């Protein structure tokens, strides 16, 4: 005997039969209205199943429905076997885009299955992956030129004005140190070694150019439509794309991914946009910046300051309060000390109030006036270049997110998302730097060393677990490569934080020394597997490396024991 | 002779007595029966680690260390192979070669360096020696700090509790100990069947990657270097990786004579050494002249003069190595062997150190933990460095069957190579996984810059039994070479192009 329960289940499974065998009932009117908003209403309607229309009256189906779906009333809407709800829920689902998502077949409804806004690392990876799955995809990328007029190609911050040029310039500085070291290792060459900014800039820009081109080609190969235009929402499923010449085009898509990234923040003081540069300009600067003031204590500030000093320039970093906010402060200060011994000057507790041009040129001369954050003291200094690196803002303000109903944190412009990177509007997703509250794994390159704050700082760990439940192991070390040139003895530092309540599990990993990124990556994987101090101790070191220090950490911070490394 | 011995023993007993009153001994049963709780023969990485740890735990310890001069008369100080003639000088010379590459690269990065650039061996050698000497000194000081008695003497066993020491002047003494640890390591082998090998050759360092490492840095500092290989390079390592390492070396100027067996070495009137060798494939004979011939054909354990067999310590007759159990114990219950001298142990500093420490803890009754010799990571410091941990592809297939192994791989380009316009054709990553279930990682292989630094953390991952999924789940650190490991997704089976493009 077919029970009512089975009957309902069958109907949900075989919705199409239901539809064919019944006439469109009264309760469908509403749904029909909803469906009219689609370009092909009947297609859409055919996906609906309204149980109310097919079940005989008088039966106890309402109780059963309550049990099965948590809803008693009709219409009770299922779409493609997924329970949506009643009238209000269905209308809401339509508004959110959930309905369209469940309906499938969007490709026939919209121009694209997916439009990605922003052609950076995240956006490109996402668009290519979607295209691989057979989706029709468009990527819109547009670089708004800096106040100095600098702009660049496809690939986003990382490739054009971030990780890549930064690491290459860091490498340039490292090679400068390498040449000094080389003499100690027996290499003989003239003392007259100089650096040519333009050669470096051209080499770096050429490489970036090849990457830009590579991205274009790979998008084409994957049949992703790339449009070099600025995108903003005009409707939840529709964007306006404005190209360089101001021509506007409209596109619709079932889903969107926001990957617009961030751009450097300015100070909002007289002269900043007119005379100062940011990291967006630095890597494309056609001339050597000369004597440079770096404003800020972000990792971008320290990295840029570090490699500029490494190229032999006179560099001062102006810091308002603390270095590398959010990083482990012990590590941050060690990094700062390291830079100071390598010629970077720090001007702490000062903020600039104005920048004036004394003389135009490449580079020109600028006068910076700053005031103390604690006293009435005023500082005046003359520099060739002022580089502002006080942080970055998410590019979410001018892309019509209000038109799409996407929630943005008004404080920082970041977009909250769920674990699936979905914004509050289900058909709009967000990835990359514009996400709120996502942890970044940020290696910071400073001059000849690198600092890395991985997972959590000690301060944060104390907040989370309590001082008494943490054990911190630490050690200074001397990379073998530094022994012969006799530099930076016991300046490199390693630290791990363990949670005593959880089997001495390693919850924090910090390393200040050469090749920090390379060293840390594997430990990151191990932490993903919940590595404990015991497992760390049981791992055999690779000799002679810097990374092996982590397999022999014995001194706890609590003990106050000697952490100078001795012998091997 | 016997009289001499007993006299010495008496002297030491007296010494012990006076000692016994001054220092409260934290000792087991049999207090005062022996001069020392522990005597370690061999002051290399393993021996020093073991003796220091034991002393730290309250044991009375002595270390005997003595360096027999090499055939060419070279000797060195305390610290053993690694510090004096192994890892340390080797990596420093490798660094010298890398810096040579850096000077070349620097030009592409905008540094203007007036020609000529040349290399002075004496400067490098002096700098390396200075560092090694400071380490020798450091070891001496550490032994002193930890109250370990250091005896610069050649040790041998009289019986299972008695050790005879002889210094450079031939002066002898004996000491007794409850436990003895043999950690005398190995020394390079000379192919004594090759006429001229002993007289004209020099030797160095460790088997089996030493030959390539030396050739690499010699080429790197601008010398014309040829490597003669009998069959395959880097035996015991993953052979695909091995080929990448040698391909890279060939591309950067090291010459290779494959399938070559040296026949004789003669001194020419010019002072050059003429080497004659046979090609095992064509059976033809070849000749060439060199300034220096360096033998790196393997290492022999330093067991012969220890008198081990006579006191009942079993040796492997073929290799001369000491047969040990999982707790490093030899066939004599109070004699232990660690490091290169022990049969079946990896010839690596960190394993010797760790084994030595753990042994000391067990001997002092502080722990019962055994040394885990699985998943020992290692790195070959050839010009293109090669780091690995776990199984080679061949070994994984042999153990699990080809169909049960999934190999992920990638050819990548280090960012540093781009601007420097260096060929990255041999920069390669391979992750050998179980083919089923969670795809546990069995082996991980990496060629590229800083291979040792890259591999260390992943070795820890292997220690935790990590899976392919966990590897892929890790956030990459950009831009590094190591991050390529977290992005690896092409299986060898698929036959797809494994070249990494873009970021």
Could you characterize what this model shows?
The complex is a heterodimer of chains A (568) and B (503). By secondary structure, chain A is an alpha/beta fold. In chain A, strands 4, 5, 8, 9, 10, 11 and 22 form a 7-stranded mixed β-sheet that branches. In chain A, strand 18 (365-372) and strand 19 (378-383) form a beta hairpin. In chain A, helix 1 (4-13) packs across helix 2 and helix 11 (163-184) runs parallel beside helix 15 (299-310). The longest helix of chain A has 25 residues, at 197-221. Chain B has 503 residues and is α/β, with parallel strands linked by helices. Helix content of chain B is 33%, strand content 22%. Chain B is built from 14 helices and 24 strands. In chain B, strands 1, 2, 5, 6, 7, 8 and 18 form a 7-stranded mixed β-sheet that branches. In chain B, helix 4 packs across helix 5 and helix 4 packs parallel to helix 7. Chains A and B meet through helix 11, strand 6, strand 7, helix 12 and helix 19 of A and helix 4, strand 3, strand 4, helix 5 and helix 9 of B. Strand 7 (194-195) of chain A pairs antiparallel with strand 3 of chain B, so a sheet runs across the interface.
Task: Name the assembly state.
Answer: heterodimer
Low-confidence segments of chain A: 13-58, 445-454
Helical fraction of chain A equals 25-40%
Give the strand tally of chain B.
24
What does the largest sheet of chain B look like?
7 strands, mixed
Q: How many whole angstroms does the radius of gyration of chain A measure?
A: 30 Å
Mean pLDDT of chain B, rounded to whole units? 89
Quick check: average pLDDT of chain A? 83
Which residues of chain B form runs of ≥5 with pLDDT under 50?
1-30
SS-derived structural category of chain B: alpha/beta
The number of distinct β-strands of chain A equals: 27
Ends apart, CA distance between termini of chain A: 81 Å
Q: Output the number of helix runs of chain A.
A: 21
Give me the secondary-structure category of chain A. Answer: alpha/beta
**Sheet with the most strands, sense and barrel status of chain A:** 7 strands, mixed
Shape of chain B: globular
Strand content of chain B: 15-25%
By DSSP (H or I, 4+ residues per run), the number of helices of chain B equals 14
**If interface size is counted as residues with C-beta under 8 Å from the partner's C-beta, which chains form the largest one?**
A-B, 82 and 94 residues
- What is the radius of gyration of chain B? 25 Å
